[in-house]
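agent> fetching stored inputs for the zinc ion docking request
agent> found them:
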Amino acid sequence: MRRALAIPAAVGLAAALGLAFADRSESQPAELVFRGGGVYTMDAARSWAEAVAVRDGRIVYVGSETGLEAWIGEATEVVELAGRMLLPAFQDAHVHPLDAGLELGQCDLTGSADAAEVLERVGACAAGSLPGGWLVGTGWELPFFPDANPHRRLLDAVVGETPALLWAADGHSAWASSKALELAGVDASTPDPESGRIERDADGSPSGTLRESATDLVAGLLPAPTVEEGVAALRRAEAVLLPFGITAVQDARVDGGADLEAYRAARRSGAWRLRTVAALRADPQRGVEQVPELVALRDAFDGPDLRVSTVKLFVDGVIEARTAFMLEPYDDRPGDRSAPTWPAERLLPMVDALAAEGFSLHLHAIGDGAVRLALDALERARRRPLPAEVRLQIAHLEVIHPDDVPRFRRLAAAAGFQPLWAWADSYIRDLTWPGLGPERSQRIYPMGSVARSGAPLAFGSDWSVSSPDPLLGIEVALTRCDPELGPDEPCESMQPGERLDLPTALAAYTIGAARANGLDAETGSIEVGKAADLVVLDGNPFEIPAAAISSVRVDWTVLAAETVYRREGAGEHHPSEHSARGADLSGTKR
Ligand SMILES: [Zn+2]
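agent> prediction call returned; pasting tokens
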């Protein structure tokens, strides 16, 4: 008991004096030590250290190089950082690894330059697909087509009689071929489903683009992936995420037992090693009646390797498709402010019931109407004393009414942003600004305002919607400019007052995301006693212009003290090259 009391006091004193602190309970040497670089610990004081020692998967020492000597034995692996930087490994508080991995095995349209390239790639996929089978793909960008509304005839011209369903990069719209619509029985007489829209020609017949729940009309015909396909998908996803230094994720839409089975099988087979939090998708049509099923899924699958702690609710859609729920009508759709996917009378009791069951909550809310509704629901949930492990996150925050900004801090609700989205790309210029009009367009992605209010920030990528690269997102959080621009190229920041500083942005992708994931007791900072989830960067983002941060590379990713990624050639010291990275994953957005 004395020891338990003494440790926090020692930690506090060490932090106050900037001293090293170590677990000296054993005199065994460390297995792995890092020295000779900048260690940014992401502890509460945002302190720097020179050296770190790791034993039995945990951090046992953080401090000066002098203090490190005692931890080095004959068998200790000594890593010379040589001026490189050591950080806690990144965490993604909103990402879709399973879906992204499945998509990597389908017709991949990600990174296409324009509509012509999309059609060329679809044609190539169609040529290689089985006759009579479905062609499924993803990754076309909404701004490639007038009104974000591609026509089925364009698709028919390259796929012919093949039923095809191609998801937009944002996952909120899908483009179907005539054959797919015919098989689904979607025609001029089909009404729009609740919370969905069938885009139509002047005569009322479906034009090919489906929004939100209307995508289910066709997607419901697709065979569900098998567990084996899920395992293969997660293997592909892991191969993408670990090289970006990400060792923990929250899968922001897990659809029931089949997805959980895939995660479990992938873990057992070694195909998937990341720390994983599953956010179970709840069905807005069913409301509270499904709560017992969600509890049963948690009981069946929750464990240390797969935390089934969270439920995901889509409160609205997206501004680009005019499905985000706004407080005031869209500028280009008079009288239309869309509607919440979960109306208040269903959302409030649902959030309350889930909180009563001890679920963490992850709410998708983009429009200022949806954000207010989500905050109202969380406020109601907070009226009961919630267990400490319950975490609240509102993700994809895009337009927040100024009155609502201070509420995140009061509710201890993580403000979930996808920082890579916060610059004036074609989505924003062509699709968002015309819908919001001049006043609201001046306050999108208000990361700076929310951070200044004292709210906890949690970053996520929403991959496969956009690149999972945390450094790309962190650069945009600081610049609010196209991350493909180099440090010497001119750029006008989108709302410069909303830029973040580097410590805040790094925190949102490490300890802040860890908090939103409920993994902060174990991970998210470099502190004695925490798991050794670490990343070595080949340069120090504090020493280069913000616009060069995305050219810093991950040299090494460590998960629970195991090397899970090492860049070829890393180890020799390469100062950052400040060159544009390969365009394969960095170019996409949403
Ligand atoms: Zn998402």
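agent> quick read of the result: The chain is about 30% helix and 20% strand.
agent> awaiting further instructions
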